[in-house]
Design brief:
heterodimer, A: 412 residues, alpha/beta, FAD/NAD(P)-binding domain, five-stranded parallel β-sheet, 25% strand, B: 746 residues, Rossmann fold, 22 helices
């Protein structure tokens, strides 16, 4: 029997669940598959509706972790198997090697001296990075990650000479005994290559909303300048295509909750940087629930920000100019048009991370990959593992999952 | 107060800074107070930590200064038992951030420039002084009452009561009506709350009520409200129905009421027959009276909520300000408005779908028209929308509502810009209008806090009366510790969200009670053992601390002497910053501590020769990390500044600025969070209050003959790392232009 709690996922819902439980005195393990905590929100430039930076809240969460010995976290870690039952789970976890010293040694100079470049998933392909890296300056833990297999032989010699790097660190496997489990596995951006009518990710200046966040972020590939990926040009006419994958039986059979607010927010990013730029949002329904209505109305009071109700049928690239042609039917006026933009943002939806992935937890997933049960077994889902939510709702969800998990292990 | 301090330098973190020279300097200056001073090539190495542990025992050290990387990293490495640890940030904010006065960066491997060594010396000295002025706080004796007061017996309140009781706590469940159940009592069914989210179903209210009333830990008090809440989290006394209850924390689940129907008059409500609200339609459904077969369900509220409903009417504001000054007692501003209808779009879209389904359930030949601008059914509820689209008898269209009128005994809804082509006229038997959710707190203080700062939540006007939080990341944090809102009193929401919210609020309430019991702070300084200590001998009853505390932690007696309530306190230090008499201090953070650090900054007598000095007081939560990150990103700043982190700009006492000025420091930069309606300050008001106080500081400086713009406050968000070095540089330009502080050398 154990009264410890395992939290799978170190994004915002997982961090919240773990900290709330820990601050009530329960021992918590966070298992995070990436090398850093923070999850999706670490990639965002600002939150709606306050337009405040996500790293502000993350900084507090990380301070809370540092101050609380009840919280233990494992990064680069994945759950292999879960055995047992409510109150008495045995969880096997694999930990991939970080290959750097367990301290925040400053490897910045060493990293930038390397010649190897690898695809940068954190920046969603907008940049490359070194195989010795941190995602952001606020990365937590603030410790570099080394990918030995991706080093050139010259780089391997350089890195091998550093006391702070260990090219041969081995993977580890550990076992945790916990009383309940919180699944805070979060979401992933829907794969644009499935959206064949919307360019399938092959049109350079047709980017996804998450790529837009990276472009606008001060720690992103352009230090926050929103520019066309093909030529670095400042966009003058930019379109947002809502429901790119969402609300579509062929892709995601649900609404992703956040994209309308996200596009409005990103439209403000553009309008702030480019006072002359023209922005159009093509939408089916503007879904700005609750007090977000105020945010929407203030945003669309801008006469250079247009809302057009209409489903986008397709986008094409004009190879000569790099422009993107949007084919759209205005649902109210009833006419079809092809409209040229110099940049297009697809409001791609959120797909649950567990979709198409291993599910060692023994919970039922619906056809989309959302967790639909588990509570009776002592396994609780939080945040976007359960349904699409925004950050505020995710924090509520994480807090409530913490109490549910505690009710299961209390007194054991 | 650390008396025997070990000082350890991490050469691997110091770049070209000469650690040996710093080490010699420490020994010369502090002598026996620092019996161990060592330089390690890599301080993070396990062997180094072992050696420090040995030193602690051998030399009886009670304080450790770790001079190397930022305190934000490697917290787990530099943890030592029974000593106070101070991290001197010589890496990010000294070695990495340094540039020469001409903007060049000294070559790696070369000798450290004199100015860099001077900066490092100042930081080390300040770190040691800080240790000497830091005591380990002992938590106050306090015993919490493990009872939660749940205010409101609707869906949220019932959920909270059940959860708290399951945790083993006692619950006082207070309901203003004669029975439990709240708005759910009126409901035939709820919109789908569980997978597959496609069909409305029973609410399950009866079973939920039964679970609560059958629980021996729950005491239900009906027909009652909270007349007064006195005391502090962990030890509140609630006056309910004339009787006193001892409770530890509160879940505020007081719910909502429908918006005044008069505001729906433009839709014909009140003068056209068979125009009802959705709240009324729900009752008809519950009572089996769905006689009308052709019904229009209006979701588009533009007729009422069109125009600029969010701009503040200016005249009213002026009036308010005037009346506030005149009136003595508290008057609750009625915050109900048409905005509540606009905010309820999600709920109303869902309810329209449910009602259209009710209608089709009641009549085979039903015609349900759902007219909307946008169907706001975000997230998983899309599935319910899809299911309704597929149902025969339900027609949905975007529409502008042009009019609702009676024609020849029938109702006609005129709509334009629909998806059915041009303008249409829809003959119907009944029109159902949406309902605005007006939170209980828009109409009444509800909480009735017996606090000096008033009976209601202070930020209600920011949220149109909802008892909500301004924090996206921390939605349970408000300015009243120990009271956690849940359900529609906080935001319009569906019952699934209410349930989750109520469980979360209960979690926070339990946590608050347990934290108070241990004498530690709750969010954001959760676990902090320190608390403000008042030396009342010097108190002049000026009331600044009681007025400025963002959390209403301080009441006062009839003379005006502050009465602290520690479990309300979030340990931000705003009271300490407010106090002109330096009455308030924390064991590990106080006026003398920071003042002494400032006085230890080495200020050259001649600015021409040694350069100016500028003090930066930086919010430790946002500006300080931004500075760290600026350095990590390769930015640098003037070698003449010295940075001291503070808990919050609200804790900055004017005396520190005076200390700096009388020391000959040429300028003071205050780096804090954004303030205003979208404030980012983790203590709500700290940066805003500091800015207000700055005006007083400016006046004082002017009287002394010092230019007031030598002290400036900047709003720095945590992600403005690329901007903050520029702010410092332009401030330095201003200082150079002005020349030396006239007090220099005195």
């Amino acid at each position: 029997m154990s009264n410890s709690i395992l939290v799978v996922g170190g994004g915002f819902s997982g961090l919240t669940a773990a900290l709330e439980a820990a601050e009530l005195g329960y021992e918590v393990y966070i298992v995070e598959k990436s090398p850093f905590l923070g999850g999706r929100v670490a990639q965002l430039n600002k939150y709606f509706p306050k337009l405040c930076p996500p790293s502000c809240g993350l900084e507090i969460q990380f301070q809370r972790i540092k101050k609380n010995p009840n919280v233990k976290f494992l990064t680069m870690a994945t759950v292999d198997s879960v055995e047992g039952e409510s109150g008495n789970f045995t969880v096997k976890v694999s930990i991939a090697p970080r290959c750097t010293a367990p301290s925040s040694a400053d490897l910045g100079e060493l990293a930038s001296s390397l010649e190897s470049e690898v695809a940068d998933e954190f920046n969603l392909g907008l940049a490359t990075r070194k195989p010795l890296y941190m995602d952001t300056p606020f990365a937590f833990p603030n410790r570099y990650v080394l990918e030995p297999k991706k080093l050139s032989s010259a780089d391997a010699i350089k890195v091998g000479a550093s006391d702070a790097c260990d090219l041969n660190e081995a993977p580890k496997e550990i076992e945790l005994s916990v009383g309940s489990i919180i699944l805070a596995t979060g979401w992933k951006p829907y794969d644009v290559t499935n959206l064949t009518n919307l360019g399938a990710g092959q049109i350079t200046n047709c980017i996804s909303n998450m790529q837009m966040e990276r472009l606008a972020s001060p720690n992103g590939p352009t230090d926050g300048a929103i520019s066309r990926p093909s030529d670095g040009k400042a966009p003058e006419k930019i379109a947002f295509v809502q429901c790119a994958g969402s609300r579509d039986q062929n892709h995601l059979g649900f609404c992703s909750y956040i994209c309308c607010m996200a596009s409005l927010k990103q439209a403000l990013y553009v309008r702030e940087q480019y006072p002359d730029a023209d922005v159009t949002i093509y939408y089916i329904d503007m879904r700005t629930p609750g007090r977000y209505d105020k945010f929407m109305r203030k945003a669309i009071a801008d006469e250079k920000l247009h809302l057009v109700k209409g489903k986008v049928a397709g986008v094409e690239e004009d190879a000569a100019t790099g422009d993107v042609i949007v084919e759209v039917e205005d649902a109210v006026k009833g006419h079809k048009a092809k409209i040229r933009h110099d940049m297009v943002v697809l409001a791609t939806g959120m797909q649950p991370s567990l979709a198409g992935e291993a599910n060692p937890f023994g919970v039922t997933l619906d056809e989309e990959g959302f967790v639909v049960d588990g509570e009776a077994k002592g396994i609780f889902s939080a945040g976007c593992a359960q349904k699409p939510l925004d950050v505020m709702r995710t924090a509520q969800s994480g807090t409530s999952a913490a109490l549910k998990a505690i009710q299961t292990v209390r007194g054991r | 107060m650390a008396e025997k301090i070990g000082v350890y330098f991490d050469q691997s973190a110091l770049g070209i800074i000469d650690a040996e020279e710093l080490s010699t300097g420490v020994s010369n200056k502090f002598g026996d107070a620092c019996p161990v001073v060592k330089v390690f090539p890599v301080l993070a190495a396990a062997s180094a930590r072992e050696e420090i542990k040995k030193d602690i025992v051998e030399h009886g050290l009670d304080g450790i200064a770790i001079c190397g990387s930022s305190p934000r990293v490697d917290w787990d490495i530099y943890e030592f038992e029974n000593v106070i640890v101070e991290r001197v940030n010589l890496r990010e904010q000294c070695a990495m951030a340094y540039k020469n006065p001409d903007g060049t960066i000294p070559a790696a491997g070369g000798a450290a420039p004199e100015l860099l060594m001077a900066m490092a010396k100042d930081y080390v000295t300040m770190g040691i002084i800080k240790l000497q002025k830091t005591a380990t706080p002992e938590p106050p004796e306090f015993e919490s009452v493990k009872t939660i007061l749940v205010l409101g017996g609707g869906w949220a309140g019932l959920t909270a009561a059940k959860q708290a009781a399951d945790y083993g706590y006692s619950v006082i469940l207070v309901e203003k009506d004669a029975q439990l159940g709240g708005k759910a009592l009126n409901m035939l069914k709820t919109v789908p709350l569980e997978f597959p989210y496609e069909e409305a179903h029973d609410t399950g209210l009866e079973a939920k009520i039964e679970e609560v009333t059958a629980n021996e830990n729950v005491k239900v008090v009906l027909n009652a409200t909270v007349e007064k809440l006195t005391g502090t989290p962990g030890q509140y006394t609630a006056l309910v129905g004339g009787q006193e209850y001892n409770v530890g924390a509160v879940v505020l689940a007081a719910g909502w009421k429908p918006m005044d129907n008069e505001l729906l008059a433009p839709f014909g409500y009140g003068n056209v027959p068979n125009v009802v609200t959705s709240a009324e339609y729900e009752l008809l459904a519950r009572d089996g009276k769905l006689d009308a077969k052709r019904v229009a369900f209006i979701v588009n509220t533009e007729t009422v909520t069109g125009g600029d409903i969010y701009s503040a009417p200016e005249e009213v504001e002026a009036e308010e300000a005037a009346s506030e000054e005149e009136e003595e007692g508290y008057v609750h501003e009625d915050l109900e408005s048409v905005r509540h209808l606009a905010y309820s779009s999600y709920v109303n879209s869902m309810i329209a779908l449910k009602h259209a389904n009710y209608l089709c359930d009641a009549h085979e030949d039903a015609r349900a028209y759902v007219l909307y601008d946008s169907m706001v059914v975000p997230g998983i509820h899309e599935r319910y929308y899809k299911a309704a689209q597929d149902r025969l008898g339900i027609m949905m269209s975007k529409a502008e509502i042009k009019g609702i009128a009676e024609e020849d005994g029938s109702l006609v809804v005129s709509a334009g810009n629909t998806l059915m082509g041009e303008d249409v006229e829809i003959p119907v038997d009944m029109v159902v209008l949406p309902t605005g959710i007006v939170p209980a707190t828009a109409k009444d203080p509800v909480m009735n806090f017996d606090y000096r700062q008033g009976p209601a939540f202070p930020d209600l006007d920011l949220f149109d009366g909802f008892a909500d939080s301004n924090y996206i990341c921390f939605p349970y944090e408000t300015r009243r510790t120990g009271v956690y809102a849940a359900g529609c009193v906080r935001q319009p929401m569906m019952m699934d969200a209410v349930e989750e919210d109520a469980i979360g609020a209960t979690m926070k309430a339990i946590q608050c009670i347990e934290s108070a019991n241990r004498g530690v702070a709750v969010h954001p300084r959760s676990g902090d053992l320190s608390y403000p200590v008042f030396n009342f001998v010097r108190c002049t009853q000026c009331k600044r601390c009681t007025e400025e505390c963002p959390f209403g932690a301080l009441d006062d007696d009839e003379k005006g002497t502050p009465l602290p309530n520690l479990s309300r306190c979030r340990r931000c230090g705003t009271c300490m910053g407010a106090c002109p008499e330096r009455v308030i201090s924390f064991d590990n953070y106080n006026i003398d501590q920071i003042g002494s650090m400032i006085r230890e900054i080495d200020v050259p007598d001649d600015m021409e020769e040694g350069g100016p000095r500028v003090l930066i007081l930086a919010c430790e939560n946002d500006a300080y990390p931004a500075l760290d990150m600026a350095a990590i990103r390769g930015k640098s700043w003037s070698p003449y500044v010295r940075i001291i982190p503070v808990r919050c700009l609200g804790s900055v006492n004017a005396i520190w600025v005076a200390d700096a000025m009388s020391k000959g420091i040429d300028g003071v930069m205050l780096l804090g969070c954004k303030y205003g309606d979208d404030y980012q300050c983790h203590f709500v008001k700290g940066s805003e209050i500091c800015n207000r106080r700055k005006d007083n500081i400016a006046e004082t400086l002017e009287r002394l003959g010092v230019e007031p713009d030598r002290v400036e406050q900047y709003e720095v968000a945590i992600d403005e790392y690329d901007k903050v070095p520029g702010m410092i540089d332009s401030f330095m330009d201003m200082v150079f232009e002005k020349g030396p502080n006239p007090f220099k050398g005195y």
